[in-house]
Amino acid sequence: MRIAKSLAFVAVAFVALSPTLAQVPQETPPSPAAAGRGGAAAGCGMITSYGEVQPVAAAIASAPGGRAPTAGGAAGRGRGRGAAAAVTEPVTISIPDAPQLPYTPVPAPTPPVGTEFAGIGSLDVMPNGHILVFQRQAANQLMEYDADGRLVRTFDDNIAARAHGLKIDRHGNIWLTDGQCNTVMELAPTGAVLMTLGTKGQAGSWDEAAGKHFFNQPNDVIFGKNDDFWVVTGHGSNPDPRVEHFDRNGKWIKGWSIKHDDGTNATVHTLAIAKNGDLYISDREVHRILVMTQDGRLLRTIQMRNRIGSLVVDKSGGLWMSAGEDGMIFKLDWDGKVTGWMGKVGPGPYEYSEAHYMAISPDMKTIYAADSLGNKIHKYVRN
Predict the structure, then answer these.
(1) Does pTM top 0.90 for this prediction?
(2) Is residue 245 within 8 Å of residue 295, measured between CB atoms?
(3) How far apart are CA 160 and CA 193, in angstroms?
(4) Number of folded domains that form the chain
(5) Tell me, what CATH number does 92's domain have?
(6) How far apart are CA 354 and CA 346, in angstroms?
(7) Measured in whole angstroms, how far is the alpha carbon of residue 104 from the centre of its chain?
């Protein structure tokens, strides 16, 4: 297995790559054909491995406020709400028949002085109540804020070519998915690399027997009680969207496909694990949750009325969902019924372009959401 474990952490100066050198188109994944011919490698080759000393040719400080290029409608977004799509493709958003959640939007963390956020992929709450934010530009790509929104630190730059998912496990370790380099990384709380799964720059289906340790657009990761973990792949242009199961040390256990019977590509964007161990796996564009056993047996499907950006389980065992470009946060029961909601689409300070991923503090008093298209963080406090 292609796993880099226990790499020594190299402390390097906070020298950022120029956006023209470090960034790739952030919202358009490679086509299946391009990925198969090394399209992912071409984009991934534009960054160095996290923790490596940056090459001299790339050691160019970013201009303040430098931003990664972003595009409105991604391949695989289905209804896509980019600037062009918004004009030609009106969208009707389903509003739940449920009460408003007892939370109030408040000012959220802001980017480091002299910069702007660019395509915030994900965020999560640390054991100490701080939040980590993972964004799609080389400089300040992974940032820690305290509970009051003050910037505590930024990690070394240039971690991922396309920042997508971020999860923190029960040990405080940080898991990141890179949808361009097709890797999943585990970092210690200090930032030291503990493990890397996938083959950097290669896209494909994991085939343990053939020694092909490939992901194709890894999106999200979730952990079991014994620290096993599952990775979901497929962001719309992957012909074989999958779930891959690993043990705590990164040894592959089993994988299975989430292909559509009609041949259309699935966007397997997120997953959560219920108290009974069942996996709740989202198929974003068709608004569907697949409830499966941990070895991939389908138990039932739940048809939602909104897009599924993220599924999150709070400390009390409750299920939550962010609704992507429908711009809402939902509290769900385990049958998918919306029991409360908040949020709306719009350009305002407390309105969404896309509720991509969300996170909840352990005491459930604070909720955060990553607005990847709106380039901002949302924060709510309980009334």
Answers:
(1) no
(2) yes
(3) 13
(4) 1
(5) 2.120.10.30
(6) 10
(7) 24
> Which three-class secondary structure state does DSSP give residue 359?
strand
Residues 6+ apart with CB under 8 A from 182: 40, 44, 198, 199, 200, 201, 202, 203, 214, 215, 216, 217, 218
**What is the C-alpha to C-alpha distance for residues 101 and 246, in angstroms, rounded to an integer?**
36
Residue 100, token pair as written in the block? 């408003």
The CA angle 32-36-40, to the nearest 5 degrees, is 85
The per-residue pLDDT for range 116-168, each reduced to its tens digit, is: 999 999 999 999 999 999 999 989 999 999 999 999 999 988 899 999 999 99
**Region of residue 10 (left: phi > 0; alpha: psi -120 to 50; beta: else):** beta
What's the CA gap between 289 and 302, in Å, rounded?
Answer: 5
Tokens of 18: 């120029």
Domain extent at residue 23: 4-382
Pairing of strands 366-371, 355-360: antiparallel
- At residue 313, the 3 state secondary structure works out as strand
- CB-side exposure of 343: number of CA atoms within 13 Å? 31
- Tell me which DSSP letter residue 207 carries: B
Identity of residue 350: Y
- pLDDT reported for residue 126: 97
Q: What residues does 221 pair with on adjacent strands? A: 231
Give the CA-trace dihedral at 208, 27, 41, 34, to 10 degrees. 80
> What is the Cα–Cα distance from 315 to 332, expressed in whole angstroms?
14
287, 182, 270: which is closest to 222 by C-alpha? Answer: 270
The residues with which 369 forms a beta bridge, in sequence order, are 358, 378
Flag whether pLDDT at 34 surpasses 70.
Answer: no
